[in-house]
Write a structure and sequence with these properties.
The complex is a heterodimer. Chain A is of the alpha/beta class. Chain A has nine helices and eight strands. Classes of the chains: A alpha/beta, B alpha/beta. At the A-B interface, helix 4, helix 7, helix 8 and helix 9 of A face helix 4, helix 5, helix 6, strand 10 and helix 8 of B.
């Protein structure tokens, strides 16, 4: 049995809430956050501040209601999102950075040069507001490794210690996850958070492979809710991890 | 090679359903169909299509009673609490000789831990792999086995009998380029035949709502290029994408829905419509229907027939 340590980052209230099949009101969001906090989940991704004052108010209430979990917010790569995020006093600010050619050229309609300049500009701004910043490499599963390594080296200059490797469209397989995360860990020594989607029914298997490759954080949602076929189901992942890695990590606390 | 064992878990279905399932399976890119003696006895009077069949028998003597199958394999009861990680079985040919081996992977294994073992098994000859899904590894194990050069895997539609779901294995082989689909997969007949199985709306590949999208960021991306947020086009599984309006919607979603129903709102700001939609969604505690949206925007002065003019799957080219 291989003993492994990892933290759970629960994104039920952000990516989970993006499922068209669920809708949480503010009372339910706070209740979910409190339950996750009671379970000693390491981090709760509580929402997207730029969505407006209601979202901001809920994130602030969640921050006040949780005693153990670190509360984080999800933001795009721009200053307006971060200005909104500053109001909710979350512990961690997460900034999503599209890294695949498709996302950079077709969604942002920019180029790599612009992306790297924007990253530097936004991080310089963020560093003056927030003590802990994490970076999300959106669509990492379809991205060029060289660009991801460049992004990581860049963000390390701003004292960012953790990047999220997002399989945004859920197309990865365990061996691909293992190889890519191993390579990033070996070349950058940065902490990795793995974010799976279940489009091919492999979110749990991929998350297990990520831990085996050295990922330090695993993103999950309650009952696996999320976009399209959902995210990595927390209970299923923890059960599988308990069997494969031993029972110490039953709650992903360590 | 994919061997599908769905029929083994339909013993209590009617003969008509069993036959419907058989015919639906033969239209998918699978290589052999496995069934039990009970199912075979139910459908044998109907015309069975040309196909490789594997019969799951209670004991070896059944082989003489049911000649003509490609292989025979004995039914076994799996004790998932046993210490064994896998069980090895013999597969027999029609003369009762051992012709191949099958390994049922039960538990406690991850793909990364199994890669080396897979290579050893593959070197040792013809082997069928039957990964069970007690800890959510079956699809990944089945895919990895085939990618490593393994001969055959056993699957079942929607993971019946705790197997690797057929639809997930087929789609993974397509997406990863190991075995490209040459035509769309049609699971509607399988769903009908498996009538009493509850299929989650978000079940990978076959769920009814897997191409529904609500979040403003994703709708905006999909309008630019659906591939930004889809692992494969919905047409590949005879589905279509659908924009849902709710509290996670953004301006893009409103614009797309107005266009979809050919509604013109003149000077009425999209942001105002979005606020009204979000409020309505909050009040109802759910996403709003297209009919509710059309009524709502007409009430605030938008004009148009509110008849669906474009399908969202055609949005990019419309």
């Amino acid at each position: 049995m291989q003993k492994k340590k990892f933290h759970i980052v629960d994104t039920t209230l952000r990516d989970g809430a993006q499922s068209p099949l669920v809708m949480f009101d503010s009372r339910e969001k706070i209740a979910i956050a409190e339950m996750l906090d009671d379970k000693n989940i390491y981090q709760i991704e509580a929402g997207i501040p730029i969505m407006g004052k209601d979202e901001l108010a809920i994130i602030s209430k969640i921050k006040k209601s949780c005693f153990h979990a670190k509360i984080s917010t999800w933001n795009r790569l721009n200053k307006n999102d971060l200005i909104a995020a500053a109001d909710c006093e979350a512990d961690i600010v997460h900034i999503s950075v599209p890294v695949s050619q498709r996302q950079i050229y077709e969604k942002l309609q920019k180029d790599v040069k612009w992306l790297l300049a924007q990253l530097e500009d936004v991080l310089a701004f963020a560093a003056s507001y927030f003590t802990e910043i994490t970076i999300g490499m959106e669509d990492a599963s379809r991205a060029d490794m060289k660009l991801m390594l460049t992004v990581i080296e860049k963000v390390k200059q701003f004292a960012v210690r953790r990047v999220r490797f997002a399989d945004t469209v859920g197309i990865m397989t365990p061996s691909a996850v293992y190889e890519q995360i191993r390579e990033i860990k070996e070349k950058t020594a940065i902490q990795i958070e793995f974010h799976a989607h279940n489009d091919l029914g492999m979110a749990v298997a991929n998350s297990i492979a990520a831990v085996q490759a050295g990922a330090d954080f695993i993103d999950t949602t309650v009952q696996g809710i999320g976009e399209r076929c959902g995210n990595c189901d927390m209970e299923k992942f923890l059960s599988a991890a308990a069997i494969i890695f031993g029972s110490d990590n039953r709650r992903g606390l360590m | 090679m994919i061997v599908d064992a769905t029929l083994c878990y339909m013993e209590t279905s009617t003969a008509k359903q069993q036959y419907m399932m058989l015919m639906a399976l033969t239209r998918l890119p699978i290589d052999a169909i496995e069934m039990t003696v009970v199912v075979y006895n139910n459908i044998v009077r109907m015309k069975l299509p040309r196909q490789k069949y594997i019969l799951r028998v209670k004991n070896k003597y059944d082989i003489e009673n049911y000649p003509g199958f490609h292989y025979y394999v004995k039914s076994i009861n799996i004790d998932k609490d046993s210490d064994k990680k896998w069980i090895e079985q013999v597969m027999y040919d029609t003369s009762g000789r051992a012709a191949a081996r099958r390994i049922i992977v039960i538990d406690e294994v991850s793909v990364i831990n199994m890669c080396e073992q897979f290579c050893t098994w593959i070197r040792n000859g013809k082997l069928y792999l039957e990964p069970l899904n007690y800890i959510e590894q079956a699809t990944a194990l089945a895919y990895t086995w085939l990618k490593c050069g393994g001969n055959s895997v056993i699957t079942a539609f929607c993971g019946l009998g705790n197997h690797a779901p057929l639809e997930e294995v087929l789609m993974t082989l397509h997406v990863t380029g190991i075995k490209r689909l040459i035509k769309p997969l049609n699971f509607s007949e399988l769903k009908k035949a498996a009538g009493n199985i509850a299929i989650s709306p978000v079940k990978p590949v076959v769920g009814a709502e897997i191409f529904a999208v609500e979040s403003g960021i994703h709708v905006d991306g999909i309008k630019k290029n659906p591939q930004l947020y889809e692992p494969y086009p919905p047409e590949l599984v005879n589905a279509s994408r659908r924009i849902v309006l709710g509290d996670m919607s953004g301006k893009s979603s409103i614009e797309a829905k107005l266009k979809e129903y050919n509604l013109v709102c003149g000077k009425i700001d999209t942001v105002k419509i979005l606020e009204i939609v979000k409020q309505k969604s909050h009040d109802l505690h759910r996403a709003i229907t297209d009919e509710e949206f059309c009524n709502l925007v007409k009430m605030i002065g938008c004009a148009g027939s509110a008849e669906k003019k474009i399908s969202y799957s055609r949005y990019n080219t419309a």
